[in-house]
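Model the whole thing, not chain by chain.
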Amino acid sequence: MLLRLRQGLAPHELRTVIDEAGRQGATVRFLDDARTLAELEGPFQASARARFEDLWAVVSILDAKDAPELHQTVRPGAGGVDTIEAGHARFGGGDLSIVAGPCAVEDRDALLEIARHVADAGATLLRGGAYKPRTSPHAFQGLGEAGLALLDEARALTGLGIVTEVLDPRDVEKVGAVADVFQIGARSMANSALLTEVGRYSAEHGTPVLVKRGIAASVRELLLAAEYVLNEGTNRVILCERGIRSFDNVTRNLLDLGAVAHLKGATHLPVVVDPSHAAGRADLVLPLGLAAVAAGADGLLVEVNPRPETTHSDGAQALSPSAFVDLVRRVEALAQVCGRRVVRVAREAV
Amino acid sequence: MLLRLRQGLAPHELRTVIDEAGRQGATVRFLDDARTLAELEGPFQASARARFEDLWAVVSILDAKDAPELHQTVRPGAGGVDTIEAGHARFGGGDLSIVAGPCAVEDRDALLEIARHVADAGATLLRGGAYKPRTSPHAFQGLGEAGLALLDEARALTGLGIVTEVLDPRDVEKVGAVADVFQIGARSMANSALLTEVGRYSAEHGTPVLVKRGIAASVRELLLAAEYVLNEGTNRVILCERGIRSFDNVTRNLLDLGAVAHLKGATHLPVVVDPSHAAGRADLVLPLGLAAVAAGADGLLVEVNPRPETTHSDGAQALSPSAFVDLVRRVEALAQVCGRRVVRVAREAV
Amino acid sequence: MLLRLRQGLAPHELRTVIDEAGRQGATVRFLDDARTLAELEGPFQASARARFEDLWAVVSILDAKDAPELHQTVRPGAGGVDTIEAGHARFGGGDLSIVAGPCAVEDRDALLEIARHVADAGATLLRGGAYKPRTSPHAFQGLGEAGLALLDEARALTGLGIVTEVLDPRDVEKVGAVADVFQIGARSMANSALLTEVGRYSAEHGTPVLVKRGIAASVRELLLAAEYVLNEGTNRVILCERGIRSFDNVTRNLLDLGAVAHLKGATHLPVVVDPSHAAGRADLVLPLGLAAVAAGADGLLVEVNPRPETTHSDGAQALSPSAFVDLVRRVEALAQVCGRRVVRVAREAV
Amino acid sequence: MLLRLRQGLAPHELRTVIDEAGRQGATVRFLDDARTLAELEGPFQASARARFEDLWAVVSILDAKDAPELHQTVRPGAGGVDTIEAGHARFGGGDLSIVAGPCAVEDRDALLEIARHVADAGATLLRGGAYKPRTSPHAFQGLGEAGLALLDEARALTGLGIVTEVLDPRDVEKVGAVADVFQIGARSMANSALLTEVGRYSAEHGTPVLVKRGIAASVRELLLAAEYVLNEGTNRVILCERGIRSFDNVTRNLLDLGAVAHLKGATHLPVVVDPSHAAGRADLVLPLGLAAVAAGADGLLVEVNPRPETTHSDGAQALSPSAFVDLVRRVEALAQVCGRRVVRVAREAV
């Protein structure tokens, strides 16, 4: 590891670095006369980098290739492969799955109708929020447990696994009883209490955790949110890019496909993309969904709703059922020329 | 209220607007032939605006002056004044208080030494984190309950009230037993479960809640975070600007004093500023602290630490004791020419 | 047109709106009693919207569909089609061209070698800067006229048309004598004197103008930069997305493919993408180039350089010759499944 | 100088660094075995840092304290002081001047009225645009030469010096004949042809150049824009912070006072602030102007207009004459407690 230190450190200040190295069983060599560059020789634990970053005397870590963190080394699939399975879905290792459904669970008939439709059209997982994070306390907050029950019913009917958000560490057990994949929303990405709690649940029950990038989170911050989950002993984490905040308003958020392409080389964890929340407009979901797959995404999260006018959140970005059929068909064709394949639920499975 | 609706709405889609108005006891008048502009006449509840914003048929709220939300109407002080008292501190209504202390509570002797010093120098509240939100799970997470006990001891010793962060809704009771002011950190600003829980506690026990602006939160989102707390029945909310994320790196975050000036006209809630976290550098805390007061801030949160080299987080931005003495003196002089005053703990009070 | 006006305008203030409408031959109708909403009936010129936006009394233009600007109506191709031809290249209307070459023109042998290579591999235009916009006056500023002469020689040798940047309105004639396409760089997007001058040249000589989006320009500002060029009487403008500034640093800029997808529905002008400058890293040029095509781009600008270590700017993002061959092959396959085709120089043409 | 190099450089790639050092008369020492850290010993010219930054082999400059650029060493005042004089105005070295006037020069009577008013109220320079940079070609572009003539008349009448923008390198002579200070607008900050041309004029005639920070320019980019001017041999450059682009919209731009505080320690050049363009709202100009002075600004640029309703640009942010009187009075009081003074035109001078 290569550290850049503050200039002009007093001996007792330099000592904090040497002591930390000692605790980690590493040796320190100063490269320059002014002792502002320190080369450390390990071996290092996954926690080593963060421990040195925490020191006042350290300005920055110039190189930490010999001290990888969990998100750099963990293989998310069983047996050391890079594919996470969840119900009929598979993410990573060349497999791509489509997650579709309404933004929020609002009405039983509507949910079951959408679930049937997206299952037929090629989705392998159903998304839908029972607990909704909302900017205003006066906005619709989701149906809560009643929504979870409806998701359970939709799964029984269609065979689709369920991706649903958990907002509160006190709800992890309750949501875990229904979810095939936990969703950590963008607003919760820095909620360490929640990340830790779902990590523990995942380590025990194997439920994968899909972590959405916060609206202004750096790629490193997203990876360290995943690190909180991985640190509890699970290896089943999926990363999700869903657009970041910027100054322009032709799209609601700015989809960062450079981050997706980068992540494919930086971690073994699958990376999926939510073009619906990024665009905030139904007409851009198809081009952005295709672009995401071309950039390397292992899956898509897409909002589908035949009657957005009856919903209380995000209706403007939902695809109609026929637009969703078209999207799946075109994603399949695109994935094929990129050497990947879209996973479908086998007929007999349903 | 004036709504802009989608173009070309079908009758059953327009009906969702008319029905919502009906539920709220409001009447609807369409201004243009195409029925894309709807004028609603109330009276309206604090929740009215959010309910209409939630509708798919509504593009935007053009005007909602006749439907104010809680953060626009609540007077934070007892008896309808705009001053929040917390121990010896007073925020708002011309009163300005200085909150000072280390970033995290790490060591008993150091904490008590800092507490004594900032009390002598003019702080009325002691800040310090027992629970620290950290980007990496491998970084120091705070001393937890042991940290709370040390804060309690520092208060007993100095008479300073305690401002400390709560991160998890399950810790609200525990933190509330020690805190004179709850701090909701920037990473928790969108954590509605936490906001609701501290709101409930504040409604019952009167503990003020200081809500920091999220790193990429709009001013309206900050106000709606406050709305979650106010919605539980308390009126004791303090807003805090602490810098937002931008592209430049001469400061760690970009302090948004335009937001402070705007908020002073938009809400009765006090607005304080944390120049330490914004700057991320000790040498800019003084000019930014003075600028904050000139822009209208009702208080400052400042990190002070005589031995930053021994700390595990944010040492680079901590003022030395003597720099803090200088800051208080200059803030007092500046506040005076701005027609405000810095509250001090009276000698006999300690 | 639908205008939102300031509240409480005095009669002489309202009069400025009515007078401007009068000058434009439009009629005004106020929709609400408070006269804050004005509906204007035209017909309108392309300048109408900007004229009303300029008025102090106008808060915003709510709708201007009946007053389109030039970038909304101009068909860029001869005879009313949407395809711009430049040498062997064609942009738009289902045709996609690849522009490749070094960042700057630095050395004769290197330039000719790259030109031969990219011509063979499938590029139809050669890019390369004779005039380089640099952040520091001490950095390499380009070879100037000597560089133009080398580009001329490369064209004669390979048949590739030349895309090159013009920085100064005084150089337009000189650059125009060599360029098959003018490039307006991101730093010049708001340089109205330059836009006007190249617009005049293009109106007279037909040379297309490729306008790159400024590093923090909104999509509307990009379109209005194009409007400056179109306003001089040419219809040959190509838009270019090349990444915007953001807070993360895994890529140098953040490629905004939502803007590309939006522009394909907002204007007839072709839209190309520069994944090299967006990524700032050679390893991400391929996935971002493919993503750009999937999102709807009509062409790519790609840096290619066999010996980046000898260059003075942007070497880190240049593709090697073999990586460029691979990119062209994969873009062709992807374009085909998207129903578009990559234009190649016919063998006999060279 | 301390350089970080790419990993795994071949000998001929390392050679590019050694050769550049040789050209500069510097020696190279590699600190680590892998030769990724190079310490260079000078002496260095002002251009040294940029030359090394330009090399492909160099990842970043870790330290360049021994190779300062012009903006770090130039003393802007005659005789080595830090005060720039322009007419009655003085910027820097404890002196603070207020520049006021309309956004654009539009009407003779209005201009003369404003000029008289701001001179009486305490401004020492009159600002006003004869050439206006506008987003749309259809918007009012300024009166051009007729506007310059009116500014000349206003100076003769009031004794105020003139600050006015130049947009086109071909206009530098013409604007220079009237301007006491050239203004380089935010959109022109990266226009190197223009910066060079005004630099040459300033070197010959002594006219100071006020460079506004681009809307998304980093502080370093602003300093390097100044470097272009200084590099022509003048030392009379003033920097101006006027807000940067962000995601929130309560203010038009986000005023970055951290940058102002940083610049006061990073350069001898005076730093002024334009709270009017930052706020975009008249009601926030006072608090932001005071905050700017508290943060260390050496002057303010303020828009003043008694009849904004008749203007074609930016009327919403102009102060009324009485609000300007109040601002000057309060800035004077504030400057005094900060140990600085606002320069006024002496009675007999007018």
